[in-house]
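Thread amino acids onto this structure.
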């Protein structure tokens, strides 16, 4: 008897949406076991003992489903921000919330999602997965969001505008006044998503200080995304959250994949919020390293936009892929982005030194900046 798939007709496979062919796969930062990884904007610090304890306690209950509404976690987040439980949604990383936000706003191929480019590479993917149209607005010459152009790109078909502040991968950020002016220019029926994945690394002067949750308090069309993956150091557990108008939050809950914020992630996020002072202190060390790296690179002749996040952007254009390969050959995996530039995460001092040894080596400088 021959074994093999039944009812198989040569050359015929199940119907898959043809438009998916045009969607690029998400490119994750590479992991090379022999090399230092400065490619994914992770925190190098392991979870705090109190967080590790919450994680292992939650593991013991793995036979039970998690709380699908994540009520304890959402309550903790609501208290932290001084908002109501109905203002908070949790997601399997804030990247899942990005996708869910497009799902709740877009249903027609003519529906538009506007965002800056380059920005977070998940935006075009989640837009196309939802069958909507991506509208890309080039960054300005300082590699920052061109907020006027972004506002001007809004049409009657626009359903969502993503604003990544600080911007991944360029690290640039806008302060409060500029973002308020932008929000005032957006129609009230268009959802503005302020993606603040790197909020904790912002060190703006008091008059520029920006907090999307505050900006959204009196604006029902503004929703803020935060994540436990970066400053809170839980990238491997997948949990992020949205703060916004109860109507938007309620819609998010409808498209939420049941139980996708798992028990361990919920417990770890609650424990991390409790330990936030200690966790946020760590960002000072990261910011200091980021600044030290930038100074050394600028000194060597690199042009680098001001970074307000835990990474730096080198706009190397056509040389980006080659530079990424050369850095990896020197033992440091960084993240090249097409023909735009490379992004380097600020890691531990000894890791950063390894990158700087490569980057500021006269041979590297001659090869890539000459
Ligand atoms: C890392 C990141 C996120 C969220 O990541 P999750 O791990 O899915 O929470 C969201 N937005 C931007 C811009 C990011 O860089």
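Threaded sequence (370 positions):
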């Amino acid at each position: 008897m021959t074994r093999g798939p039944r009812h198989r007709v040569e050359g015929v496979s199940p119907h898959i949406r043809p438009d998916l062919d045009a969607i690029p796969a998400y490119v994750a930062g590479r992991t090379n076991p022999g090399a230092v990884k400065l490619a994914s904007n992770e925190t190098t610090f392991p979870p705090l003992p109190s967080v590790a304890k919450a994680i292992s306690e939650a593991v013991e209950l793995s036979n039970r489903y998690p709380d699908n509404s994540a009520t304890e976690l959402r309550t903790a987040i609501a208290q932290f921000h001084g908002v109501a439980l109905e203002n908070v949604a949790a997601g399997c990383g804030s990247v899942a919330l990005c996708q869910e936000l497009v799902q709740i706003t877009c249903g027609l191929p003519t529906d538009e999602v506007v965002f800056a480019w380059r920005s977070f590479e998940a935006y075009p993917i989640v837009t196309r997965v939802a069958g909507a149209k991506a509208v890309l607005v080039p960054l300005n010459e300082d590699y920052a969001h061109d907020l006027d152009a972004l506002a001007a790109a809004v049409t009657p078909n626009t359903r969502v505008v993503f604003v990544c502040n600080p911007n991944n991968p360029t690290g640039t950020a806008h302060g409060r006044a500029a973002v308020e002016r932008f929000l005032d220019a957006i129609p009230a029926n268009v959802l503005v998503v302020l993606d603040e994945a790197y909020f904790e690394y912002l060190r703006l002067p008091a008059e520029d200080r920006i907090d999307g949750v505050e900006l959204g308090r009196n604006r029902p069309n503004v929703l803020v995304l935060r994540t436990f993956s970066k400053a809170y150091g839980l990238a491997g557990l997948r949990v992020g959250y949205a703060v916004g108008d109860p109507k938007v939050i309620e819609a998010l809950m409808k498209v939420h994949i049941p139980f996708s914020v798992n028990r361990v992630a919920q417990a770890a996020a609650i424990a991390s919020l409790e330990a936030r002072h200690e966790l946020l202190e760590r960002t000072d060390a990261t910011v200091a390293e980021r600044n030290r790296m930038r100074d050394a690179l600028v000194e060597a002749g690199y042009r680098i936009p001001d970074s307000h996040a835990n990474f730096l952007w080198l706009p190397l254009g056509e040389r980006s892929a080659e530079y990424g390969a050369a850095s990896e050959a020197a033992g440091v995996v960084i993240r090249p982005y097409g023909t735009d530039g490379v992004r380097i995460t600020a890691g531990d001092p000894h890791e950063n030194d390894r990158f700087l040894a490569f980057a500021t080596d006269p041979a590297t400088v001659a090869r890539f900046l000459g």
